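REVIEWER CHECKLIST
Item 1: Sequence provided? yes
Item 2: Single chain? yes
Item 3: Sequence as submitted:
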Amino acid sequence: MPPLQLSTEQAISLVQQLTPSQQEDILKYLLLQPWTSWLNLTQDAPDKARQAAAERGQNWDTMTEAEREQFIDDLLHEA
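Item 4: Structure as written out by the authors:
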């Protein structure tokens, strides 16, 4: 059978029509898939955070959790 061509919106609409049990099965399936890009991102994150902090004159390793959260928030809102 050839692959079905759906937009993201169409796929979401189809999933919304499933029973909660079927939706749970789909969620489990997706969660068990290899997420290579996510894995790479999470593995690189500490080094990237340290680098970003150093570039801004800060030390990631000495920041409190609250300071780190604020730093990340500030990074996300940089123009």
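Item 5: Key structural point noted by reviewer: Residues 7 and 62 are 46 Å apart (CA to CA).
Item 6: Recommendation: ____
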